[in-house]
Amino acid sequence: MTQSVLEVSSPARDNTMTTINSLRCEFADSPACVDTFAPRLSWEIASEQRGWAQGAYRIWVASHPRLLKEGKADRWDSGRVESRRTARIAYAGKTLRSGERCFWKVQVWDQSGESETVSETGVWSMGILYSSDWKASWISASTPRDVVVDGRTLPPCAYLRRKFTVDQPIKSATIFATARGLYEMHLNGARLGDSRLSPGWTDYDKRIQYQSYDVTALLRQGGNALGAVLGDGWYSGYLGFDVQRDHYGDRPQLLAQLVIEYADGARELIVTDGNWRAATGPIDYSDFLMGEQYDARKELIGWDRPEFSDASWRSARVQSDSVTAPGHPALVGDSGPPIRVTQELRPIAITQPAPGAYLFDLGQNMVGWARLAVTAPAGTRIQMRFAEMLNPDGTLYTTNLRAAKSTDVYICRGDGVETYEPRFTFHGFRYVEVTGYPGEPSLDTITGCFVGSDAPDAGTFECSDPMVNQLQSNIVWGQRGNFLSIPTDCPQRDERLGWMGDAQIFVRTATYNRDVQTFFNKWIQDVEDAQAADGGYPDVAPRRVDDRNGAPAWGDAGVIVPWTIYHTYGDTDLISKHWASMTRWMDYLTIANPSGLWENERHNDFGDWLSIDADTPKDVLATAYYAYDAALMARMARAIGRREDAATYDALFTHIKNAFHSAYVTPDGKVKGETQTCYVLALRFGLLPENLRPLAAKHLTDDIAAKNGHLSTGFVGVGYLCPVLTETGYNDIAYQLLLNDTFPSWGYSIRQGATTIWERWDGWTKEKGFQDPGMNSFNHYSLGSVGQWLYQTVAGIDTEGAGFERIVIAPRPGPGLTYARATYHGTHGPIASAWDASANGLTMDVSIPANATATVFVPTSDPRTVTEGGRPAADAPGVRFLRHENGRAVYAVGSGTYTFAAR
Ligand code: RAM
């Protein structure tokens, strides 16, 4: 019976054209090192039929795709489960083993129970499940000499290799590898994988990610060679301010294990141990902040091939700490997204501001490095320096990089066309200055290699105003480059840390632009790892460089980010996993602040960082965030069925709200400090009694008017400014702020040519030029947190409850825009909302994925004028009129595409 079901059911047979897409395991496409015993499986359904909903599913998991074809599920057959769920179904089959590959399909039925569809085959691979399955030892190169450049200690990169022989037919071969530091793995002359800067940043004293590589096709009978190059990276290189290096250790180390399964079932392991050989090669040094120097004359030709003679190499040094010993940091499978070069940029211009100094403009502030192409005599030294901005005389402006030298040097081999790109550094830049280049370079000399954590695209936003489209582009570029293993503040200066305040204010915007579920799942663990024994979350996670407990709106990321990721993707396991940690943070605040005002444990107390001529009292801001934490904790407690905790946090919220009210709020709705941020936080976090909300909103808009229609918010207030204005009936003022191009505004930076979000509203002004170079990045995403409002309000895509199961389409057209459109790929698939007010009335195009439902709000004073697909909306198939409220007709719809029109 099973056999026939899988064989006869195909998408083609289904006359409603229903297909199953996007099979995912642990929220990733074909993940390579899953290390949980019950991986969660998800899929999406696309159907042409309006209102399609799943009635039942059946999951099949097998050890070989052939078995699935034969209708056999030797690992797990879930049986038919009557359920609408399509996401996070936990595997419940035979116990999974380290390294095993699982192939799977899902079969679904619609609600009639008759029409059925079968997916294509998905796959995932298991990582190493038990630390005792690790047989490798940490190895390093014996102490090489250090180079000192400009007073900085910079060690050369180590090369490691190991020759081995294969003399039987192979069934499969997988390498598991990681480093304390950074590594690149090679096998038989090929670099493995396309990810960069592996293994990524975690608190290496607690947790280290490993990656895996399927090398079945690369092994050959006879001699083989494994190789690795090591760099310092976050582990031992310069990082953060104050010229500090060796944050976790002073030499990079490698841990690698090749698992070969032979055709006869035997297994063999080749692991890092004393049999490896070590040397230094062409990379004189490679450091995040300082850059890389590569001397091509020292290349070790063929070093990663079996034929190479490593007689002059030394034995690798085996570290004394054993992977299986208690207290060893946890080794965890990299759950993605991988750090990759995701785009190449061609320069748009070359200038020569000084003799012999060629300046390439890539047209975009970006993160990564430059690839150089050159033909020059051996020993020619070519230097590349990087900057985001130019001085008035057209030379590089590097002062804002502070102690980051950001200089790459290439020394030529001299044997024809040479191309070079660095391995273990990255820069934040738009301009590249090349010196030492022989002759005239061309646009082909330099290519910008854009690097970042490669989270899948999730959304698009576009509207009738080109400046707003540039703003959206600036937000996305800032996100793509600064989400590099962790959410960093900036990519260029000597900082590049996981600032919590920046992350919490931007996270909701981030979810719209990219699928950041696995990215933040990983970072939330970094945040928990960074929690102090007293319960304090830090300012930066991983907690290095700046060791203090977190300031208000910074430490709170430990609650806000998990909440946001849960709310976006619907994963309650995430809450359960971090619940104990979050309650420790709440206890820490509550014990220190019994009055309900957050008066103690404010540490760096940044306040509304980089606000403009507005001084939000720090206690007001702190207390507002404390209340917000309590409210989110109550909601999360409810989501995971902890009713008593929910009641406790509800009560805590009320306590803080009352304290806030009596300490800071006047009877006429003024909030102490009276800045825009004061009002925005009080309104957004629900800290005012109903009757004072309109008054407070009025004070907010009065302040905007007094500033001649301008904002004054810093990092903390900015994210909620436009949302609060729309919520309180001032959508037109929110639009005004969005469309401003006079100082201070988003538009002002764009008028000055910004291609990313600036750290400061006044990073550069016509009157004063550059702001204090002590802190002036031109690629900082925090002030880009308005992106959330573009998607949720201008285009109107949101979720009611967690996980975009019940979608809200509620665009709020406003003055200055004639159309806006957005797409967002939610848990169930693609959602679209577009409105156009350029002709008579308003049209709205809406698209809802199968298995989801939506509430659609159509702006109109008269619901009788609303049509869908040309007929009265109330009569349209699959559309149900609910009510008319606040100038909007409200409809319930199921999946499908809809065109509403209203007058
Ligand atoms: C700056 C960082 C970051 C901010 C902190 C308070 O140095 O760049 O953006 O969160 O300060």
Automatic annotation (TrEMBL):
One of its GO terms (biological process) is carbohydrate metabolic process. GO terms for molecular function: alpha-L-rhamnosidase activity. Pfam families: Bac_rhamnosid (PF05592), Bac_rhamnosid6H (PF17389), Bac_rhamnosid_C (PF17390), Bac_rhamnosid_N (PF08531), Ig_Rha78A_N (PF25788). It is an enzyme of class 3 (hydrolase). The keyword Transmembrane helix does not apply. It catalyses: Hydrolysis of terminal non-reducing alpha-L-rhamnose residues in alpha-L-rhamnosides. Its EC number is 3.2.1.40. InterPro entries: 6-hairpin_glycosidase_sf, 6hp_glycosidase-like_sf, Alpha_rhamnosid, Bac_rhamnosid6H, Bac_rhamnosid_C, Bac_rhamnosid_N, Ig-like_fold, Rhamnosid_concanavalin. Keywords: Hydrolase. The keyword tRNA processing does not apply. PANTHER family: ALPHA-RHAMNOSIDASE (EUROFUNG), ALPHA-RHAMNOSIDASE (EUROFUNG)-RELATED. This is alpha-L-rhamnosidase. It comes from Capsulimonas corticalis.
